[in-house]
Amino acid sequence: MIVWLNGTHGAGKTTTSALVQQLIPDSRVLDAEKVGETLMDIRPGLSDTDNFQHWPPWRPLVVETARHVLEYTGGTLVMPMTVLVEQYWREISAGLARHAIEVRHFVLHADQDTLRARIERDTVLGPSAFRLKYLQPYAEAARTWLHAEAEVIDTTHLTPAQAALKVAEAVAAGAQRRAAPSP
Q1: For residue 93, what are the domain limits?
Q2: What is the count of structural domains for the chain?
Q3: Residue 60, domain CATH
Q4: Among 168, 176, 155, which residue's Cα sits nearest to residue 9?
Q5: Residue 71 contacts residue 120 (beta carbons within 8 Å)
Q6: Residue 93 near residue 62, CB atoms below 8 Å
Q7: Which SUPFAM superfamilies did the record assign (predicted)?
Q8: What strand order describes the sheet that includes 151-154?
Q9: Mean pLDDT score, 129-139
Q10: Which residue, 83, 55, 58, 67, is CA-closest to 30?
Q11: Helix, strand, coil in percent for the chain, rounding step 5
Protein backbone atom coordinates (compact mmCIF):
# COMPACT_ATOMS: atom_id res chain seq x y z
CA MET A 1 0.00 0.00 0.00
CA ILE A 2 0.97 3.59 -0.54
CA VAL A 3 -0.11 6.38 1.76
CA TRP A 4 0.27 9.47 -0.44
CA LEU A 5 0.40 12.77 1.42
CA ASN A 6 -0.49 15.55 -0.99
CA GLY A 7 -1.01 19.26 -0.39
CA THR A 8 0.98 22.32 -1.16
CA HIS A 9 4.16 23.61 0.40
CA GLY A 10 3.70 24.50 4.05
CA ALA A 11 0.93 21.97 4.68
CA GLY A 12 3.29 19.74 6.66
CA LYS A 13 3.77 16.77 4.33
CA THR A 14 7.43 16.04 5.08
CA THR A 15 7.15 16.39 8.84
CA THR A 16 3.87 14.48 8.96
CA SER A 17 5.17 11.66 6.75
CA ALA A 18 8.00 10.89 9.18
CA LEU A 19 5.48 10.74 12.01
CA VAL A 20 3.04 8.58 10.00
CA GLN A 21 5.89 6.17 9.32
CA GLN A 22 6.34 5.75 13.08
CA LEU A 23 2.62 5.00 13.54
CA ILE A 24 2.10 2.47 10.73
CA PRO A 25 3.89 -0.85 11.26
CA ASP A 26 6.22 -2.02 8.49
CA SER A 27 6.19 1.33 6.72
CA ARG A 28 8.87 3.55 5.29
CA VAL A 29 8.99 6.97 3.67
CA LEU A 30 9.70 7.29 -0.04
CA ASP A 31 9.96 10.90 -1.11
CA ALA A 32 9.12 11.18 -4.82
CA GLU A 33 11.05 14.43 -4.86
CA LYS A 34 14.24 12.33 -4.85
CA VAL A 35 13.19 10.96 -8.24
CA GLY A 36 12.91 14.56 -9.46
CA GLU A 37 16.31 15.39 -8.01
CA THR A 38 17.80 12.52 -9.99
CA LEU A 39 16.31 13.95 -13.16
CA MET A 40 17.64 17.39 -12.26
CA ASP A 41 21.14 15.91 -12.41
CA ILE A 42 20.60 15.29 -16.13
CA ARG A 43 18.73 18.54 -16.69
CA PRO A 44 20.76 19.71 -19.68
CA GLY A 45 18.96 17.00 -21.66
CA LEU A 46 15.50 18.02 -20.42
CA SER A 47 13.33 21.03 -21.18
CA ASP A 48 13.85 24.17 -19.14
CA THR A 49 11.42 24.34 -16.21
CA ASP A 50 11.60 25.03 -12.51
CA ASN A 51 9.38 22.03 -11.71
CA PHE A 52 10.62 18.53 -12.49
CA GLN A 53 7.04 17.20 -12.45
CA HIS A 54 6.62 18.73 -15.92
CA TRP A 55 9.27 16.37 -17.29
CA PRO A 56 7.42 13.36 -18.75
CA PRO A 57 9.86 10.78 -17.30
CA TRP A 58 9.15 11.84 -13.70
CA ARG A 59 5.67 10.32 -13.39
CA PRO A 60 6.42 6.81 -14.67
CA LEU A 61 9.69 6.81 -12.74
CA VAL A 62 7.79 7.55 -9.53
CA VAL A 63 5.46 4.64 -10.28
CA GLU A 64 8.29 2.25 -11.09
CA THR A 65 10.39 3.34 -8.12
CA ALA A 66 7.47 2.80 -5.74
CA ARG A 67 6.61 -0.55 -7.34
CA HIS A 68 10.14 -1.86 -7.07
CA VAL A 69 10.61 -0.64 -3.52
CA LEU A 70 7.32 -2.30 -2.48
CA GLU A 71 8.28 -5.54 -4.22
CA TYR A 72 11.57 -5.51 -2.33
CA THR A 73 10.41 -4.35 1.10
CA GLY A 74 6.69 -5.08 1.27
CA GLY A 75 4.70 -3.11 3.79
CA THR A 76 3.56 0.44 3.28
CA LEU A 77 5.21 3.37 1.58
CA VAL A 78 4.44 6.83 2.92
CA MET A 79 4.96 9.25 0.05
CA PRO A 80 4.91 12.99 0.74
CA MET A 81 4.61 14.82 -2.57
CA THR A 82 2.67 17.75 -3.90
CA VAL A 83 0.87 16.92 -7.13
CA LEU A 84 -1.40 19.75 -8.25
CA VAL A 85 -1.79 18.91 -11.94
CA GLU A 86 -4.73 16.53 -12.32
CA GLN A 87 -3.28 14.83 -15.41
CA TYR A 88 -0.08 14.06 -13.48
CA TRP A 89 -2.04 12.57 -10.58
CA ARG A 90 -4.07 10.47 -13.04
CA GLU A 91 -0.88 9.15 -14.65
CA ILE A 92 0.64 8.23 -11.30
CA SER A 93 -2.48 6.70 -9.78
CA ALA A 94 -3.29 4.75 -12.96
CA GLY A 95 0.28 3.47 -13.14
CA LEU A 96 0.13 2.26 -9.54
CA ALA A 97 -3.30 0.69 -10.16
CA ARG A 98 -1.88 -1.25 -13.14
CA HIS A 99 0.45 -2.90 -10.63
CA ALA A 100 -2.41 -3.53 -8.18
CA ILE A 101 -0.90 -1.15 -5.63
CA GLU A 102 -3.50 0.28 -3.28
CA VAL A 103 -3.17 4.03 -2.74
CA ARG A 104 -4.65 5.96 0.15
CA HIS A 105 -4.53 9.54 -1.03
CA PHE A 106 -4.61 12.23 1.65
CA VAL A 107 -4.46 15.99 1.21
CA LEU A 108 -3.00 17.93 4.09
CA HIS A 109 -4.88 21.20 3.81
CA ALA A 110 -4.52 24.57 5.49
CA ASP A 111 -6.02 27.91 4.67
CA GLN A 112 -4.01 30.30 2.50
CA ASP A 113 -3.01 32.62 5.35
CA THR A 114 -1.71 29.71 7.41
CA LEU A 115 0.22 28.28 4.47
CA ARG A 116 1.77 31.65 3.67
CA ALA A 117 2.79 32.17 7.29
CA ARG A 118 4.32 28.69 7.53
CA ILE A 119 6.35 29.21 4.37
CA GLU A 120 7.51 32.67 5.38
CA ARG A 121 8.48 31.50 8.89
CA ASP A 122 10.10 28.20 7.88
CA THR A 123 13.24 27.90 10.02
CA VAL A 124 14.68 25.04 7.94
CA LEU A 125 14.15 26.20 4.35
CA GLY A 126 13.56 29.86 5.04
CA PRO A 127 11.06 31.98 3.10
CA SER A 128 10.74 30.72 -0.46
CA ALA A 129 9.31 32.48 -3.50
CA PHE A 130 9.18 29.07 -5.24
CA ARG A 131 6.98 27.62 -2.50
CA LEU A 132 4.80 30.72 -2.27
CA LYS A 133 4.00 30.69 -5.99
CA TYR A 134 2.19 27.34 -5.53
CA LEU A 135 -0.41 28.72 -3.12
CA GLN A 136 -2.78 29.83 -5.88
CA PRO A 137 -2.38 26.68 -8.01
CA TYR A 138 -3.06 24.64 -4.86
CA ALA A 139 -6.24 26.63 -4.16
CA GLU A 140 -7.40 26.07 -7.75
CA ALA A 141 -6.61 22.32 -7.65
CA ALA A 142 -8.35 21.99 -4.29
CA ARG A 143 -11.43 23.72 -5.65
CA THR A 144 -11.62 21.86 -8.97
CA TRP A 145 -10.44 18.28 -8.41
CA LEU A 146 -7.92 17.56 -5.65
CA HIS A 147 -10.19 17.54 -2.60
CA ALA A 148 -12.66 15.29 -4.42
CA GLU A 149 -9.88 12.77 -5.12
CA ALA A 150 -8.52 12.42 -1.59
CA GLU A 151 -9.24 12.30 2.09
CA VAL A 152 -8.72 15.88 3.27
CA ILE A 153 -7.16 16.58 6.64
CA ASP A 154 -7.28 20.23 7.64
CA THR A 155 -3.97 20.96 9.35
CA THR A 156 -4.69 24.65 9.96
CA HIS A 157 -5.04 24.08 13.70
CA LEU A 158 -3.28 20.70 14.01
CA THR A 159 0.25 19.85 14.97
CA PRO A 160 2.09 17.48 12.63
CA ALA A 161 1.69 14.76 15.28
CA GLN A 162 -2.08 15.27 15.33
CA ALA A 163 -2.25 15.19 11.53
CA ALA A 164 -0.13 12.02 11.45
CA LEU A 165 -2.44 10.36 13.95
CA LYS A 166 -5.48 11.21 11.81
CA VAL A 167 -3.78 9.66 8.75
CA ALA A 168 -2.72 6.53 10.65
CA GLU A 169 -6.18 6.09 12.18
CA ALA A 170 -7.82 6.42 8.74
CA VAL A 171 -5.44 3.84 7.27
CA ALA A 172 -6.07 1.45 10.19
CA ALA A 173 -9.86 1.88 9.90
CA GLY A 174 -9.68 1.09 6.19
CA ALA A 175 -7.63 -2.04 6.88
CA GLN A 176 -10.16 -3.18 9.48
CA ARG A 177 -13.03 -2.66 7.01
CA ARG A 178 -11.22 -4.74 4.37
CA ALA A 179 -10.44 -7.50 6.87
CA ALA A 180 -13.97 -7.74 8.27
CA PRO A 181 -16.01 -10.64 6.89
CA SER A 182 -18.83 -9.56 4.62
CA PRO A 183 -22.36 -10.40 5.73
Answers
A1: 2-179
A2: 1
A3: 3.40.50.300
A4: 155
A5: no
A6: no
A7: P-loop containing nucleoside triphosphate hydrolases (SSF52540)
A8: 27-29, 76-80, 2-6, 103-109, 151-154
A9: 93
A10: 67
A11: 55, 15, 30
